Amino acid sequence: MTESSNNLHETDVRSPDPGAVNPAVPITPAEQSDEAKKKRRRIVTVACVALAIIVVLLLLLTQCSGAQRVELAPEQDVSAQSLGQDEEKMQADEGGGAVNITYSGTARIDLAAKTVSMHLENPSRSTHDMAIELVIVSGGKETVVAESGLVPAGYELSTMDLSDSVQLAAGSYQGFYRISFFDPGNSEKAYMQSQVNLDSVTAS
Fold first, then answer.
1. Backbone angles phi, psi at 184, to 5 degrees
2. What pLDDT score does 190 carry?
3. Which of 114, 97, 117, 95 lies closest to 106 in space, CA to CA?
4. Considering Cα of 156, then 159, then 161, then 166, what sign does the dihedral take?
5. Average pLDDT over residues 183-204
6. Residue 195: its pLDDT value, please?
7. pLDDT tens-digit readout, 66-119
8. Is residue 10 pLDDT above 50, yes or no?
């Protein structure tokens, strides 16, 4: 009896690994190029998103630091005296201001008492309060030797304290007042500063 040729054969049938590459179907150079392009696009997309996040954070930090840079008026100077005036305010553009300053062209520094004798008035018709710095110029270098507190509109100032850190020799100096202005409504410092030159600053 001859053996039947209808023998049964057995083989394994497995579901292919989705990540496996079928060796019978090689990847063409075109497909490799497409895959590389997709990877580059993903990298560029991630980089762009990261850059956008960084830019937003920097803008937020800038706004926060800008808010912190708002300078408010100092306390009223204890030496400031009322002029006893009640004048109509000067005309000024909306959002602006107008200040009329009366001052003496000389300042005298008492080195022993560490005080500055001077005179400056901020008339009541001014729309802004002010604070001043006395600056001397020596050897091309500017040095702030005294700073006032707030001199409101309608007040005058005749004396300031010499800064503790300042070391001056007796003599005559060139100098000027650097004047900062403050809105009496919200106490915020105005953008503009003014400078008035003095005829002489004498230290003795």
1. -70, -15
2. 87
3. 117
4. positive
5. 91
6. 92
7. 555 788 999 999 999 999 988 888 887 776 778 888 999 999 999 999 999 999
8. no
> For the chain, where are the alpha helices, taking DSSP H only?
29-68
Q: How many angstroms separate the CA atoms of 204 and 201, rounded?
A: 10
Structural tokens at position 116: 């500055």
Alpha-carbon distance 136 to 116, whole Å? 12
Confidence of residue 52 (pLDDT cuts 50, 70, 90): low
Please give the span between the terminal C-alpha atoms of the chain, in angstroms, as a whole number: 141
Structure tokens at 143: 């040095």
Cα separation values, 70 from 147, 152, 186, Å: 19, 19, 11
Please give the model's pTM, rounded to 2 decimal places: 0.65
Q: Could you tell me the two tokens for 64?
A: 């926060």
Give the pLDDT confidence of 158-186 residue by residue, as tens digits.
999 999 988 899 999 999 999 999 999 89
14 three-state secondary structure:
coil
Written as six digits, the tokens of 146 are 């005294």
User: Could you tell me the two tokens for 185?
Assistant: 């409504």
Name the residue type at position 74: P
44 conformational bin, left if phi > 0, alpha if psi -120 to 50, beta if neither: alpha
Say if residues 147 and 157 touch (Cβ distance below 8 Å).
no
Distances (CA, A) of 41 to 28, 48, 55: 20, 10, 21
Query: How big is the chain, counted in residues?
Result: 204
Place of tokens 């996040």: 53
